[in-house]
């Protein structure tokens, strides 16, 4: 039972190829939680299960959060999975497609796998797509109250739900204090990834992140895409920008109708064998 481990700006994932697990259709939530545990398992911010057959794309991918839930899409996960496919000799330098529960993306590998560009799809601010409770509308600059504080937020989706809060100053403390409550706020029936956003200038923004099903996070590709799109929609940035996160920066390009291209690094960490005793604990 083999695994490969990679990180993208400190956001680390384990890649499990279904071909190495012939008797398993997918890891159970209990197995995911143990695998991702920093003390009882290998340790990671999630599991990438693939490649699998797909009628919609060249490769299929499922993404699991450390709490055992399944995510629709992950920008960092997609870059890591692209590097894994390249390392396995399944792709070269030509663009290829990956199907996730959040939609189909196009990816391309550069610099021997160390740099990946992913065409992530279109960002929408429509509450019916994010989703956000209430009548049909674009969710832009609406109030939301958490604990002792009221914020102004925007909602967006690039296959998964995001809540973006623009502030003059942000911090890890802010994300850790208010992120958990915003994630599960009744406004978001499928919960939300939370981005606290500071505009540096028209080509640079900074984020502190609380991810749905993960917690405080050093970097998130889909969050970078959603936050950049919101900042542009509000007229705060141009169409080419860098998104700075605690783990590092991603390049984001915003095309017509808010189609997003994301470019960033991936590093290979380790590869090895999982022992059956690990899953005995999971049971």
What would you say this structure looks like, in words?
The chain is 19% helix and 41% strand. It is α+β, with helices and mostly antiparallel strands and 283 residues long. It has two domains: 2-114 and 266-282, Diaminopimelate Epimerase, Chain A, domain 1 (Roll), CATH 3.10.310; 142-262, Diaminopimelate Epimerase, Chain A, domain 1. It has an 18-stranded mixed sheet that branches. Helix 1 (29-36) packs across helix 5. The longest helix is centred in the N-terminal third of the chain and has 13 residues, at 75-87. It is globular. The two termini are 17 Å apart.
What's the structural blueprint in terms of helices and strands?
Layout: E1 2-8, E2 11-16, H1 29-36, E3 47-52, E4 59-64, E5 70-71, H2 75-87, E6 96-100, E7 103-110, E8 115-122, E9 142-146, E10 149-157, E11 161-166, H3 172-183, E12 193-201, E13 204-211, E14 215-217, H4 221-233, E15 240-245, E16 248-254, E17 259-265, E18 267-273, H5 276-282
